Amino acid sequence: MPRMSALRGAALVLAACSLLAGSAGASTDGTSPPAARAAAITIAEPGQTAVYLAALQAPPLASAPATSLAYPADGSLASATSAAESVGSHSASVDLTGLSLFGGEITADAVAAHVDVGSADLFGGSGLTNLVVLGTPVDAAANLEVQLGDWGRLTVLEQRTTSASEALIALDVFVDSDHGGVPAGTRILVGDAEAWTQQARVAQAAPNRVAREVSPSGPKGLHRAAGPKSAGLVPPEPVHVKNALPRVVLPPPSVTPKLTAEGYVFPVYGPAGYSDTFGAPRADVSYHHGDDIFAPLGAPILAVADGTVFSVGWNKIGGNRLWLRDRQGNEFYYAHLAAFSTLAVNGAHVRAGTVLGFVGNTGDADGTVYHLHFEVHPVALLFLGYDGAVDPTAYLDAWQHLQDIRIAAAVWAPAVAPSSRAPTPGAILLQASDISTANGLDPASLERALLPIGY
Fold first, then answer.
1. Are 359 and 405 in contact (CB under 8 A)?
2. Alpha-carbon distance 414 to 372, whole Å?
């Protein structure tokens, strides 16, 4: 849609300015987890970065004065004559007037989305005034569903409750068929407010008892990792996204917690290349939660720190994957491995530099260039689940590249699906040399010949 693409940059600038205004003075070491967030209007097209028309996140406490909103510039898709927001230590609110979606097909004189986890009246003051959908007045009620002709559906005052937060979306529009200049699968949220519970926010204060170090029954939606019960660690696994965007999340965190070069090593041994692709759009998990480190098939993959290995095995997206938790409680995700070393065992305690596996392209990387997908999940953001990842690029730039390692004698991997194009695990060539190039008349030629091929 040319008109949408041409104006996306301007809308993103507005979103970025609002987020920066809401995060001024926030801790740069990642020790202050989000308390609340609010977004006036969010437009999420499948396979694209979500556009936020005015958004705030606390801490610190912040508010945005009333301002008019339009997207695109003529407001033909979404507009509001006035929109104001605020976020606090346990509350978030969005108030709009003069709302219009799809050129007047959905209108409301006023929209209010209020969440306060510190109040007995959790969603007090929330509602819509004079809501009209496709020319028909609608009495707003919690979780009311309205069909939008043959092209979409709408949920009014959608309430979402989890063990960590409370949220309210005043209007949640899902486009089933191309309509109004946006493709099928597009989602538009109006008045999206969420506040985290105090229990979730203080979980970071006890890194040895983080929410995902759970009892056998565990919180809803979480399951124990396979392996020794003593490990007791459950990863925030990536979940495949149907229609690209089943939910809209906050933009990727921009904090950089202190994980210094001391005690940490680069996760791939030998020649490797990478660039900063964190936050890039991804159709299957909404955005890229890490960086891809490109290296030859079978290049050794290393533990980046002293810590505990867990969730070793296979999933649809990551293929052969594992997690590592360091002594401070930070977690690291490794995906698309060709195979594991014999030291990659659930509950194993390893030292920085231990070989855990080997570079491949399993999972949804099947058929792509061999690489390691690597993520950093700081302990302070673990309660956010899989979306608590931060940009690993600065860490990769700083961490030490090991020059000499000891490689385990054996490897293993789960069975590969018959339809997979990934190499079958087995004997993986880790290093080779060719002495046929040596010349007895040149003593230095033997030394050169014994160098690994490619050097």
1. no
2. 17
**What tokens were used for 61?**
């406490």
User: What SS3 state is found at 394?
Assistant: helix
Among all chains, which residue has been given the structure tokens 């028309």?
A: 53
The C-alpha atoms of residue 269 and residue 256 are separated, in whole angstroms, by: 24
State the Cα–Cα distance between residues 20 and 34, nearest whole angstrom.
Answer: 14
The predicted model scores a pTM of 0.46
Check whether the bond before 59 is cis (ω within 30° of 0): yes
Candidates 375, 303, 298, 310; CA nearest to 337 is 298
Report the pLDDT value the prediction gives residue 24, as an integer from 0 to 100: 29
258: tokens are 């202190």
Q: What are the percentages of helix, strand and coil residues in the chain, rounded to 5?
A: 15, 35, 50
Q: What tokens were used for 232?
A: 């007791």
DSSP 312: E
As beta bridge partners, residue 309 has 324
> Phi and psi at residue 269, in whole multiples of 5°?
-90, 135
Residue 23 has pLDDT above 50, yes or no: no
